[in-house]
């Protein structure tokens, strides 16, 4: 969920990606000191007792918050930029180990419709997503990661579509998807994958706009899963 000579199908990425955000600008959150603690990193596997920033937290934020017109894609409403770990720490009022004192947690649990994020009519975060963010903050809000990716699984339903859901639908869904490229169903994804655009953008190949837009590159494992799915025939499996 950065070069030149872009393909025609991708030119719109450069000229105003179309998601919008309708709430009034809020006051910027007070930046905190840079958090560099990465304890909990586990390149060999993922602990069920740990909330990982790269696997658990960032996909939620990318899908719901760090979109163009709100807090990503070149936009930072209220001075809040949610496109990377450091920008989240610096602008979203995250207080490690203390969700109750963290503005990021406060706005996603707000009951006032004029203050809650994501703003209506967008759907609020699910209880499960809120619990993940709360757990991550309680555990220190570290820039932690783990490897929990099986490159032997490259089916559309089991691997590719979940990757797209977590990293792409924040911009490429709804009535006005970014660059006019919707990615909400297999039939919408198929032509983009067949043209080479899907792999080229997520692999940050020359001639393609790197995706997720202004976000971190997908893991090598996720990129390889998409590539294997394409090489295997781009099936709806």
TrEMBL record:
InterPro entries reported for this sequence: Cyt_c_Planctomycete-type
Pfam families the UniProt entry points to: PSCyt1 (PF07635)
Location of the Cytochrome C Planctomycete-type domain: 69-118
PANTHER family: CYCLOINULO-OLIGOSACCHARIDE FRUCTANOTRANSFERASE-RELATED, F-BOX DOMAIN-CONTAINING PROTEIN
Annotated protein name in UniProt: Cytochrome C Planctomycete-type domain-containing protein
Organism: Brumimicrobium glaciale
Taxonomic classification: Bacteria, Pseudomonadati, Bacteroidota, Flavobacteriia, Flavobacteriales
